[in-house]
Specification:
Blueprint (H helix, E strand, L loop, with lengths): L1 H13 L16 H4 L1 H45 L5
Organism: Cutaneotrichosporon cavernicola
GO cellular component, one term: mitochondrion
GO molecular function, one term: ATPase inhibitor activity
Length: 85
């Protein structure tokens, strides 16, 4: 009988339902997100990021234009050095 009680308790523990605890959902429109200072800071950071990215793109385009100009000048010199027919 003792063995039967031990088996029943063991099987009861295995069959116990699992309990999951959830935190309350976090809303995006909290006090911090809706404050004007936070919004202004976020906008300023976004603007600063975009400005830096545009500067990098302009720098790359300028370098590409310089290379293309150098290539054009080299081709013009090559054409100028050819004998005329």
């Amino acid at each position: 009988m003792i063995a039967r009680i031990a088996i029943n308790r063991t099987s009861a523990l295995r069959a116990a339902p699992m309990v999951r605890f959830y935190t309350a959902p976090v809303r995006g429109e909290g006090a911090t997100a809706s404050s004007a200072g936070f919004r202004q800071r976020e906008e300023a950071q976004e603007n600063q990021y975009m400005r830096r990215r545009e500067e990098e793109q302009l720098k790359a385009l300028r370098e590409k234009a310089k290379k293309a100009q150098a290539e054009l000048e080299a081709q013009e010199k090559k054409v100028a050095g050819l004998p005329k027919e």
